[in-house]
Design goal:
Strand content: under 5%
Number of domains: 1
Transmembrane segments: 18-36, 48-69, 154-174, 186-207, 219-240, 261-287
Subcellular location: Cell membrane
Number of strands: 0
Radius of gyration: 20 Å
Largest sheet: none
Shape: globular
Distance between the termini: 52 Å
Helix content: over 70%
Number of helices: 13
Organism: Kocuria turfanensis
InterPro entries: L-PG_synthase/AglD
Protein name: Dolichol-P-glucose synthetase-like protein
Length: 294
C-alpha cells in the first residue's frame, strides 16, 4: 500500500543525498591531494601572496556587485513566474547562498536553501525551484559560452563541448523566463555577464599577482577556463575541479602547470573573501533574536 511504501522512499532520499555530498567532497579533496603531491606546496605559498589589503577590498567590491547582479537576475526570473521578491531580501538570500555554496559540497546547497525559504514564504515548489534554477543556469550559460574561444587552445572538441553546453543550459534558462517581457529577458543575460565579469576580474587579478611576467592573453585564456570549471558540481566550493581544469588550461596556453595551480588557489581565496558578507546574513538567520518585553 502507498502508506507502507512511502516511508522507505523518504528514508532513501536523504541517504542518497548524504552519500552524494560525501562523494563530491572526497573527489575534490583527492584531486587537490594529487595536485599538491605532483606540483608541491610552493603553489600554496604563491596563492597566499595574492592577498593584500588592496586585493581584499577589490574582492569585497567584486562580490558586492556580482551578488547584487545575481539578486536582480533572480528577481526578474521569479517575476516571470508570478513571484515577487524585494531587492534587499534577494540580496541577502544570494549572499548567504553564495557563502554556503563555497563551504559545502556540490556548490548548490545554498541555492536549495533559497528554494526552501521561498517555499515557506508561500511560493509553490515549481515557482520557487524554477526561479532559482533558471537564474543559476543563466549564469552558467555565460560561464560556458565565455570558455569556447579559450578552449580552442585545448582542442576543437573541447570548444565544441563548451558551446553545446552553453546552448543547452541557456535554452533551459531561456524557457524559465518565458513569461517575461523582452527587456527583462535581455536584462537577465546582461546581469549574468556583469556577474561573470566580476568573478573573471578576480581570477585575472589572482593570475597577475601570481605570474606577473606571463603574457596577458595566456593568463586570460587560463582564467576563463578555470572559472568555467567551477560549474562542475564536484568538490567543496569548486575546490578540486577548478584547480585541475586551471592547471590543464595553463599547460594548454604554454604556462607551467604549477603556475596554473597557484592561480586557481589564489582565486579560491579571493572568491571566499568576496562571499564573507554572507556570514552576516547567516548569523541573523541562525542566532536567536532577543525579545524586548512589552
Amino acid at each position: 500500500m502507498p502508506a507502507e511504501t512511502a516511508p522507505p522512499r523518504r528514508g532513501r532520499g536523504p541517504l542518497r543525498r548524504i552519500l552524494l555530498a560525501v562523494a563530491q567532497a572526497v573527489t575534490g579533496l583527492v584531486l587537490l591531494a594529487v595536485l599538491f603531491r605532483t606540483l608541491g606546496t610552493e603553489s600554496a605559498r604563491s596563492a597566499v601572496g595574492v592577498l593584500s589589503p588592496l586585493t581584499v577590498v577589490l574582492a569585497l567590491l567584486a562580490g558586492l556587485v556580482a551578488t547584487a547582479a545575481q539578486a536582480q537576475r533572480w528577481r526578474l526570473v521569479a517575476r516571470s513566474r508570478g513571484a515577487r521578491i524585494g531587492f534587499r531580501e534577494a540580496l541577502g538570500e544570494c549572499w548567504a547562498a553564495g557563502l554556503v555554496n563555497l563551504l559545502l559540497p556540490g556548490g548548490v546547497t545554498g541555492d536549495a536553501v533559497r528554494v526552501l525559504r521561498r517555499r515557506r514564504r508561500g511560493d509553490t515548489w515549481p515557482g520557487a525551484g524554477g526561479s532559482v534554477v533558471g537564474e543559476r543556469l543563466a549564469g552558467t550559460s555565460v560561464l560556458l559560452a565565455a570558455g569556447v574561444v579559450p578552449a580552442l587552445a585545448v582542442g576543437p572538441w573541447v570548444a565544441a563541448a563548451f558551446g553545446a553546453g552553453a546552448l543547452a543550459v541557456g535554452a533551459i534558462a531561456w524557457r524559465a523566463t518565458s513569461g517575461s517581457p523582452a527587456r527583462d529577458r535581455a536584462a537577465v543575460w546582461c546581469l549574468s555577464v556583469l556577474a561573470w565579469a566580476c568573478y573573471q576580474g578576480l581570477f585575472l587579478l589572482a593570475a597577475l599577482r601570481t605570474a606577473p611576467q606571463a603574457p596577458l592573453p595566456d593568463l586570460w585564456g587560463t582564467t576563463v577556463l578555470g572559472l568555467a570549471g567551477m560549474s562542475v558540481p564536484v568538490g567543496v566550493g569548486g575546490w578540486g575541479p577548478r584547480e585541475g581544469i586551471t592547471t590543464l588550461a595553463a599547460m594548454a596556453h604554454g604556462l607551467p602547470a604549477a603556475t596554473g595551480f597557484a592561480i586557481s588557489l589564489g582565486y579560491g581565496l579571493l572568491a571566499l573573501i568576496s562571499a564573507l558578507p554572507g556570514a552576516v546574513v547567516l548569523a541573523r538567520w541562525l542566532l536567536p533574536v532577543p525579545r524586548i518585553p512589552a
